[in-house]
Amino acid sequence: QVELEFGTATESAMVRGAKATTDMPAEVFASIDPSSHITLQTVSKHLADIGGITGLRTEVKSPAFLSILQNPSEERAMLTLLLLRESSMDWSPYLPYIRAFLDGAAQHIPSSWDPSTEEGRYRRTSLGDLKGGKALLTAVDELRNVIIDSYANMLPKALELFPQLLGVDELEVEGIREVYSLQKYVEMWLSIRSRSLEDG
């Protein structure tokens, strides 16, 4: 929900994105309702509100939910898991953004390139052949290792503590592996990080 103010007049509309095609005069303002942001709070609330499932709401409000979120990096890890959960659903208001996130990550963020795949190896080799490319690859691998550590630290305890929130009861073992695969986690984590205004 976005409200645009033109002097004394205000118009409100639901939009998926906005772009200024000309310079905006000082009297024009755009404000975005915080509930429309993609944050840990909004996504967890959305999941908890689906169908009014009491168990989901209980997990979101539980001391355990807050106890594992001690810093921005842990909040980002949990948001990453929740968005992966959203991506597995038949419908979600976040799906267009999730797809855009992942498309951008796969194409433009080197740390998302999977070195175990042919395409990932080709991209990494091409980057390494550039001037200064070897140093870039070192930085790329360092960041990827940080994400892998984040995945290893957060996923097991999150699945154990929040089975309904993360859909454990609805997914078979193979489904869990698919939805919460390391590569998908890396891509989503990087997508969130690349759009974050906070460091961490």
Structure description:
The structure is a single chain. This protein is mostly helical. Helices cover 57% and strands 8% of the residues. The protein contains 9 helices and 3 strands, in the order E-E-E-H-H-H-H-H-H-H-H-H. It has a 3-stranded antiparallel sheet, with no helix packed on it. Strand 1 and strand 2 form a beta hairpin. The radius of gyration is 19 Å and the shape is globular.
What's a concise summary of this model?
With 200 residues, this protein is mostly helical. It has helices at residues 40-49, 54-61, 63-67, 72-87, 95-108, 118-128, 133-161, 173-179, 182-195, and strands spanning 2-6, 9-13, 28-32.
Strands of the biggest beta sheet: in what spatial order?
2-1-3
Largest β-sheet summary: 3 strands, antiparallel
The SS-based structural class is mainly alpha
Weakly predicted, low-confidence segments:
none
The strand count comes to: 3
Envelope shape: globular
Q: In DSSP terms, counting alpha (H) and pi (I) runs of 4 or more, how many helices?
A: 9
Instruction: Tell me the helix content.
Output: 55-70%
Distance between the termini: 28 Å
Task: Give the ordered list of helices and strands.
Answer: EEEHHHHHHHHH
Instruction: Give the strand content.
Output: 5-15%
What value does the average pLDDT take?
A: 80
Compute the gyration radius: what is it?
19 Å
